[in-house]
Amino acid sequence: MVSLLLTVVFAGVSLSGAALFLAPSGRVAREVSWSFLAFSKDQWISVHLTLAAVFLILGLIHLLAFNARALLAHLRPGRRFYSPGGLRLELMAAIAAGILLVGAAAWLQGPGAWLAGQRAEIRESHRAEASFELGPQQQRGGDRGRERAPFRAID
Q: 2 or 92: which carries more pLDDT confidence?
């Protein structure tokens, strides 16, 4: 049951993440009433955060209840595949890969730069489309003093 639920929640997090990747910026999304699969941007944010929290909890349950022994076996010292310092080479490679991915994303290198560029192009296309739908006062930023409704959770 946990594995199937984890799979379904993963699919939901992936879909909501894709929706948010494609979503225009907050101002543009509000001005043009942007929606995807009948959900607004605020609703997609709520869905994504909720499913991500459930995914983390289910992932921990899955790891600790079903795979703790296998994980500990990977970390336990043995005769094969260990560095002179005693850490398993697989663990060191996984840590190094994680650090490289976070660094590349943070400093916009490699795949991180490509994804950021794609997202910027998508948002710019939304902004260009919105400029046709907005009045001249709104295009110049005339609505900046207007009070906006705060983000609220979906019931």
A: 2
